[in-house]
Amino acid sequence: MGFFTEGDAPIAWRGPMATKALDKMLIGTAWGQLDVLVIDMPPGTGDAQITLGQRLPLSGAVVVSTPQDVALLDARRGAQMFRAVRVPLLGLVDNMAAFCCPKCGHEEAIFGAGGVQRAAEDLGLEVLGQVPLEVAVRVQSDEGVPVVVANPDAPSSKAYVRIATRVWEKLRTSESGGGPAAARGGPTISVSE
């Protein structure tokens, strides 16, 4: 939505307005031929997330969280909400898992360690990967060039590629194996080689 606003103008919409905008972007947009459409949602269990889960035959959801307890509360609620609207959960991602000092190599779990793993075990899910906390991710995001493009050898780039590969594998298995996404009438995903 940020692309449709100017400057610092807020998007102060109540649920029905946000839902209408979401419908317009998802259903009223000619997306063309897609292999995958990734929808990045803010944390929580609000109208937008519920609407998305109820109106579209989603192939799956990935829940992303930092490892500290307060963030994991939202992640757990989000996972349970997707289950309630019958969206298959593909797994959890441990974001900002640790900071590795570029000068000395010391690794520090700034937001704690093990929280996402414990949550995944409690929810019966897989941890799809751990993304390190790197300054390069922020710098490249501010410049509008993804870190995987600007520096494919960065640890965060490698983590993103591993996670994307794992999600792709899970989507292919789910679709071709008649898994939960196929049962819900999700899109057919095919790969041209």
TrEMBL record:
One of its GO terms (biological process) is iron-sulfur cluster assembly. Residues 174-193 are annotated as: Disordered. It comes from the Eukaryota. It comes from Monoraphidium neglectum. SUPFAM superfamilies: P-loop containing nucleoside triphosphate hydrolases. PANTHER family: IRON-SULFUR PROTEIN NUBPL. The keyword Acetylation does not apply. PROSITE patterns: MRP. This is Nucleotide-binding protein. Keywords: ATP-binding, Iron, Iron-sulfur, Metal-binding, Nucleotide-binding. The lineage of its organism: Eukaryota, Viridiplantae, Chlorophyta, core chlorophytes, Chlorophyceae. GO terms for molecular function: 4 iron, 4 sulfur cluster binding; ATP binding; ATP-dependent FeS chaperone activity; metal ion binding.
